[in-house]
Specification:
The structure holds two protein chains of two kinds.
Chain A (H helix, E strand, L loop, with lengths): L4 E15 L6 H10 L4 E15 L3 E5 L6 H8 L7 E7 L2 E4 L12 H11 L4 H15 L14 H12 L6 E5 L7 H16 L3 E5 L3 H7 L2 E6 L2 E7 H10 L1
Parallel strand pairs in A: 3-7, 3-8, 5-6, 6-7
Antiparallel strand pairs in A: 1-2, 1-4, 8-9
Chain B lengths: L1 H5 L3 E3 L6 H11 L1 H15 L8 H22 L6 H28 L1 H4 L7 H17 L1 H10 L11 H22 L6 H14 L15 H4 L3 H14 L6 H25 L3 H4 L1
Helix pairs in contact in B: 3-7, 4-5, 4-8, 5-7, 5-9, 5-10, 5-12, 7-9, 9-12, 9-13, 12-13
């Protein structure tokens, strides 16, 4: 394996097996087994996907809803294991969760920084080191010992963003994050990502918007129905996608 | 620089061979997350009640009082240290029933996380059991209280409950992993499980003495793993008695085999949870 590879997929395939009719309970299961009515349909969310990304490179993944963009991110994040082919990832992967996803509303902001940090793979010592800068960035020092349920949505988002971006990851997976939040917040995200890129982070960026892909990424990948429709530079792919 | 590169963690799906051992490795690397989640569960459980953690101790005590009132007057069981007999039995059985019924919901309850970040899935299950383990330890406080009132003479055999609790934990983790594997595939399994738990409770000598079981059924009755663990727990704690070797052997076999089976079943299927939950 090449020394500089950060992410590589070889003939990656991910499929979902679904019964032709939904089975919700035990009773139905037994009835359907008795009647031999269960048919399992296989749906390939991704198939024959080849992707190779060196360290410090950025790739923008485009495609319609249901094209397999998020599934690809999940395969890289090890949330879904491949049914076909192979995924190889070197470095600490940092998924940009939907903001606030790992939080517990009953805990205080202080406790949530540790909880969220731990979930993202930071040890308690790591979080302690970063703690002050996180609180600083979130501008929530006065409220940090109040439970999260007393926060406004905007405050939760700020805390989540501050915690999630406090450390520079090896690999950043960003899924549509620019579609949430106001203009200020989106600019903050963009700035953070650019500074990551300058410092050698590998970024996989999923977006509907060809423009933000062009702004951030060097490479582009266009997925359609779970297969690669086009690869190339971000310019080329984004333009082709926008034209389609 | 070169050294720095080689230190980066590598995930290669082609090199994942055996989920049974892969999970142990992952759990070891992520033990700090497990600790954090147990702490979180513990903190949030009683956050909105006035008495908070006191409930952990009050609950078994109130339960015990109900049983003592009903059974020592109505049925007149002649059991030495009857209140403690009930309390100790309930401590063990509650740990088992609460852990398993909470563990089975963990995958569904944490679906949001499961779909976003990779964590060894046993973390969720063990976090659910861990808090019940803490609860079990807390119930020793009311136990000691009643033991003082009841003038229970403790002997050195008390230390034997440590290996007993260890074997019990193996068994509880094993069963929890089995039911936690079934639930994501079968939504209403939790209802079935609550019936099984009720039946299981009546088949375990929690509030009646074993000698009321008919002679010809006692052989089968004693195969119940919960009978074994409850007796293993009570003999040294209440009656200064070293449990019979056959009980130790039974507890060991059930603990190890169920644990290994549960771990195998769970890890074999845990990659599917993200598709299901």
């Amino acid at each position: 394996m090449n020394q500089n590879i950060a992410i590589q997929t070889e003939d990656l395939g991910i499929c979902f097996k679904m019964p032709s009719e939904p089975i919700s309970g035990t009773k139905e299961l037994f009835i359907k087994i008795a009647k031999k009515r269960i048919k399992i349909n296989t749906f390939w969310a991704l198939r024959h996907v080849n992707l190779s990304l060196n360290e410090g490179e950025s790739i923008g993944i485009m495609g319609k809803n249901g094209a397999g963009k998020s599934t690809l991110l999940k395969a890289i994040a090890r949330v879904l294991t491949p049914k076909e082919g192979r995924v190889y990832v070197r470095g600490k992967v940092f998924p940009m969760l939907e903001l606030g996803a790992g939080f517990n509303m009953e805990l205080t902001g202080h406790e949530n920084i540790y909880l969220y940090g731990n979930i993202l793979g930071l040890t308690n010592e790591n979080v302690t080191q970063l703690y002050d800068s996180i609180v600083e960035f979130s501008e929530l020092r006065e409220f940090i010992h109040s439970p999260l349920r007393s926060y406004s949505t905007g405050m939760v988002a700020r805390l989540a963003f501050a915690t999630a971006t406090a450390v520079q990851p090896d690999i950043l997976l960003a899924d549509e994050i620019l579609s949430v939040g106001d203009k200020d917040f989106q600019d903050k995200c963009m700035d953070r990502m650019r500074s990551y890129l300058n410092n050698g982070t590998t970024i996989v960026f999923v977006s509907h918007s060809p423009n933000s892909v062009k702004q951030i990424c060097k490479k582009g990948l266009w997925l359609e129905h779970g297969q690669v429709r086009m690869t190339g530079s971000a310019e080329e792919v984004a333009d082709a996608y926008a034209a389609s | 620089m070169q050294e720095n590169l080689s230190q980066k963690p590598i995930y290669d799906s082609a090199k994942l061979i055996n989920p049974f051992f892969e999970e142990i490795k992952g759990l070891k690397e992520n033990s700090f997350i497990l600790r954090r989640m147990i702490y979180t569960n513990f903190k949030t459980r009683y956050k909105r009640s006035y008495l908070g953690v006191i409930w952990s101790m009050l609950n078994p005590l109130l339960n015990m009082i109900v049983f003592v009132i009903i059974f020592s007057n109505l049925f007149r069981f002649d059991v030495p240290h009857y209140p403690l007999y009930i309390l100790s039995g309930n401590m063990i059985f509650t740990f088992f029933s609460q852990s398993t019924s909470e563990a089975m919901m963990q995958i569904i309850a944490n679906a949001g996380m499961l779909r976003r970040v990779y964590l060894p899935k046993t973390v969720y299950i063990l976090a659910g059991i861990g808090i019940n383990g803490i609860n079990l330890i807390l119930t020793f406080i009311p136990f000691i209280l009643i033991a003082l009132i009841d003038r229970l003479a403790l002997s050195w055999t008390v230390i034997l409950i440590i290996p007993v609790l260890f074997l019990l934990s193996l068994f509880v983790v094993g069963i929890s992993l089995v039911v936690a594997t079934i639930t994501p595939f079968l939504n209403d399994f939790s209802q079935i499980w609550s019936v099984i738990i009720t039946l299981w409770m009546y088949l375990t000598p929690l509030f009646y003495p074993v000698n009321i079981i008919p002679e010809h059924l006692i052989g089968i009755y004693q195969l119940n793993p919960m009978y074994i663990y409850v007796t293993l727990f009570r003999d040294p704690l209440l009656y200064a008695k070293i449990p019979e070797p056959s009980l130790w052997l039974g507890g060991l076999i059930y603990g190890v085999i169920i644990f290994a089976f549960g771990w195998w079943l769970f890890t074999k299927n845990s990659n599917e949870f993200a598709y299901r939950a």
